[in-house]
Automatic annotation (TrEMBL):
The gene is gspF. Belongs to the GSP F family. Component of the type II secretion system inner membrane complex required for the energy-dependent secretion of extracellular factors such as proteases and toxins from the periplasm. This is General secretion pathway protein F. Its main location: membrane. One of its GO terms (cellular component) is plasma membrane. One of its GO terms (molecular function) is metal ion binding. One of its GO terms (biological process) is protein secretion by the type II secretion system. Keywords: Calcium, Cell inner membrane, Cell membrane, Membrane, Metal-binding, Protein transport, Transmembrane, Transmembrane helix, Transport. It is found in: Cell inner membrane. The chain crosses the membrane at residues 177-200, 231-250, 386-405. InterPro entries: GspF/PilC (IPR003004), T2SS_GspF (IPR011850), T2SS_GspF/T4SS_PilC_CS (IPR001992), T2SS_GspF_dom (IPR018076), T2SS_GspF_sf (IPR042094). Residues 40-64 are annotated as: Disordered. It holds the Pfam family T2SSF.
Amino acid sequence: MAAYDYKALTLDGKSRKGVIEADSPRQARQLLRDKQLTPLTLVEGREDRNRHSSAGPGKPFAATLLSPGLPSKTLALITRQMATLIQAGLPLEEVLQAVAQQTENQRVKSIMLAVRSKVLEGHTLAHSLAQYPRAFPNLYRATVSAGEHSGHLDKVMNRLADHTEESQQFKQKIQMAMIYPCLLIVLSMTMVTGLMIYIVPDVIKVFVGSGQELPTLTRGLVALSHFISHYGWLLLLLAAITVVAITQLLKRETMRLHFHHWLLNASFIQRFSRGFNTTRYASTLSILTNSGLPLVESMKISCDVLSNDFLKQQLHIATQRVQEGSSLHHALKETGYFPPMVLHMIASGESSGELDTMLERTAVYQARDLQNLVTVLVGLFEPAMLLFMGVAVLLIVMAILLPILNMNQLVG
């Protein structure tokens, strides 16, 4: 049975889109007619098209690029629904069908029905989810696979649902915290640019016509205003060229490794860069080991979810050391990028035989520490932007008032 995306007309001539399951296109059309719908287009689901077209070279990569993704909020909701229904004892195919029926998003419904079709063919859930790598990341699929192999899919799905929801909430907190600073930046730059282009030239023109010598601050403001008014587009063009050039350079592996190494060691941003990546690594490693996956396999998957390629390279070396018999805390210590507290907690877990529990506590500790760091940075950024605005406006006002004061002195 396959999933088909359809477009049909109702009896009153209205267009309707949706997804329907059938053994063949002919049966799908008949099912639509039974619902008093006139089929216009009928397209086999993306998963089935990828499956049929994956024989040629390069097709799996193309299928990965074309496969639809899911927002983190939607993925968290789907995971929680699946965990609840599996824990209630429903068969997996009924769980997938129920999740598909509960959503109003046609893309989500299409994905879930296609996954269900794959499960009905006898494939595992993890293998079925792999048809949509952008919707269900590597960590997600590996955790589901571990739950299926251990026979505790319900518990693993609940843990995965908790993790997905916590990750979504953390992203949402950061996004909400960044809204006000971003608005301040936009408003500040817009206000200063508007003053320099439209207000300052008209005001300064009066003093230039009087023939008096302008103060240094005023002359500098006039020059800056003239440059922004006539050559401001060059700054925008230069910024765009710089962004494109940096993007192209970072596509080269050597340059990207150097840049990511710099991010981990730069004095101001190293704490944030290290905190974000080590938190992500610890959290992923925690959920995978708690799901019953072997430590080495968990480390390999945890490396792949990192955004910093240099740290990812170092952790691959650490994985090799653990595979050769080294302890986890010693291998991570050799990288030089994990906080001492994290290493101490992992070492304690290894010595007590409760590594899974300590990894979970480590992940919570790291996430809380990163969240506090982001809160402090955002808290410092807001007064910094207000100070920038105050200084900018003060300089503009002084540049305008100084010629007036000089003129009054000459008249006196």
